[in-house]
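User: I'm writing a tutorial on reading structure tokens. Could you give me a worked example: one chain, its sequence, then its tokens, then a sentence or two explaining what the tokens reveal?
Assistant: Sure. Here is the example chain.
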Amino acid sequence: MPSDHGCISFLHLPLEIRNIIYDLAFVPVEHGNILSPTETPYTKEAAPLLYVHPSITADLRSRLYQDDFSIVLPIQEPSEFAKGRGFSEEALQECLDRSSRLMKQRCGTLVIEACQTSYVMTEWDPEDYPGQKKEDFEQEEDYEHWEGDEFAANLVPYLLKIKKELPALKTIKFILWLVEWEAPLDGWRSQLEELAREWVKLDESKKATQKKDSTMSGVSMRSGGTSKPSLDIHFQVNTFDYYDQDAGDGGKNWIQVWSEFADDDQPLRPEYLNLLFVAMDLKWDDHITGHFYGWQFDPEGWENVYINTMPS
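And here are its predicted structure tokens:
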């Protein structure tokens, strides 16, 4: 007996039912590269549902660039970036101009991932080596880059430029692979404080503009609470085969110093800077074979006399 009903398609289902299916079938994309603005992170391979039908694409639009998404700024060889040899602010602005408007409106997390893999050698400069000819100059390993202070100082203007284009950003995650450099607090503290201070100013300026616009349009804005504006920074360092040569001497290594500065009860840290610090240790032999297992340091362990006196 022929059916009196036509074929029922997926799009005929109520949106509530479709959303249940999307919850199961749509896998959120976690990362995008800010330096590749024309390459959407939602490719056919990563998010095939977006390419099935325009109506399904419209359904899924609200799920794009949400809390599980981060935009990544990769920096290979930070020593070169610190010398102005990486991408310029103008090049970054071009990438931002070409980025998805939806991403810029919604993305809440920026990831800075940097890795120094090569030795940094001294370079001839007549001001640094007066009276010495260039042909007589002998290169040697340059240890001034190890603390990373020049890198941090040069990076802050880039991050503030990104914030201006991505006003929804609330969190910055630093992931530093410490192969041929280090990251002591002295090289980063003032830069992170400046970054957070200017970041909060941008947020306050945005709120003031929104309040003014809502007043002019006759729309009242509800207060989001009494919490003061701040910047959340997650700072992760990945070391390789690390050991504290001076453990047990009564002092503190640079990981302990970072951990204390990140403590919630630290009175010297500005209230507008929320800091989470994590230090990981990996085995180089494992790393070069593609195994990225690691162990998280518990900085308080170095304060234990028994641990500090254990033979290595």
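What the tokens reveal: The two ends are 83 Å apart (CA to CA). The chain has one domain: 32-214+229-308.
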